[in-house]
Amino acid sequence: MPSRLISFKTFFLLALAVAAAWLILNWWRGPKVDTFTVERTPLIQTVVASGKVMTPKRVEIGTQITGRVASIPVEEGQSVKAGQVLIELETAETGAALNQAAGAVRQAEARLKQLQSLGLPTAEQSVVQAQANLDHARRNYNRTKQLREKGFLGESQLDDARKNLDVAESQLHTAQLQVDTNLPRGSDVQLAKAALTQARANLAAAQAKEGYTTVRAPVDGVLISRDVERGNVVQPGKALMQLAPSGQTQLVVQIDEKNLSLLALGQKALGSADAYPDRNFNAVLSYINPGVDAQRGSVEVKLDVENPPDYLRQDMTISADIEVARRPSTLVLPPETVHDIGKPQPWVFKVENDRLKRVPVKLGIRGEGKVEILQGLQAGDRVISAALAIYKDGQRIRPLVTDQRP
User: Fold this and answer.
1) Smaller CB count within 10 Å for the chain: N or C?
2) From CA 193, how far away is CA 185, in angstroms rounded?
3) If you average pLDDT over every residue of the chain, what do you get?
4) Which range among 150-159, 276-285, 321-330 shows the weakest confidence by mean pLDDT?
5) 21-57: buried (b, 16+ CB within 10 Å) or exposed (e) per residue?
6) 190-242 pLDDT, tens per residue?
7) Which portions of this protein are annotated as coiled-coil regions (predicted)?
8) Dist CA 168 CA 132 (whole Å)
9) What pTM was computed for the model?
10) Quick one: CA dihedral 169, 171, 174, 178, positive or negative?
């Protein structure tokens, strides 16, 4: 019995020694840690933004006169052609003004025609008659004067003959003036022509106002909004409809200002609509707003869609991945393995001879789930996650290779 007890104690002590040795060995070898390998792969850096589908130079439709809406022969969302009727106003008032202006033109034309056809001949005939009257009055005066000098007539009779002569001369002068005013350059003709010009201008204004009662589409496009109904009284200066012209389609997105230095005109992008997330389309960066929205800290950017898919709609919410940099082959790591990644001196824990070594690195572009390593590491080097903050420089570990991101 004592010998069996001794054998059991010996076995227990031996097992305890083995376990202690194993623990000491594992402590000396360090903990098991997942590592990530520096790889050489293609890398694309993108800036992701969201925004809306918009057509450049949207047209706001309104009226140029005040009036009551008689009809609206189009609906919101309808495609229209240039010149197509969009809004019609009541025309009773403008029609009456048009008829009045047309009547004034006819009256002015008749007045000018009367002067040209009858005024001048009548005035010329009056000159002939006045000249004849003057000749008769002059002869009568001369005869009366001679008889007065011989004493056959009194002074009063000579005075009457002189008055008749003066009147005849005045009448001839008036008739001659009447001829002058009826000549093509005369004042009456010029006044008649001026009146006709004014009447025609009033007619043109009335015709234009009549034309304003019909609002037409200035270009081909799609009506994306309508804020008017039949019977409404509308006034100039108020937008009643909004027309998106056919042609160029753009994406208008907001980019965080911290990414402004990465953007350049001509960069390619891949767009997708929130309503159709499984479909993509190509776009090109065409405009960068020179100003920054101080409230949101963002910059407005526009991208041209050369071949827009048929499912795109005005004001549709979209996302755009703008390609700002591309590397056909470069060293990469998951960004979660880099310490102080947003600071001036980033670094990693590199595994070297089963020990951790703090190595400074120089970073390049960042892609989806990857960051470019420009200096500090080589292909095949292994590093650990930056989330493992408990480990120290020089610490021994047992590295495990993993393909999963930390």
Assistant:
1) N
2) 10
3) 83
4) 150-159
5) eeeeeeeeebeebbbbebeeeebebbbebebebbbee
6) 777 788 889 889 989 989 889 999 999 988 888 888 999 999 999 998 999 98
7) 98-209
8) 9
9) 0.56
10) negative
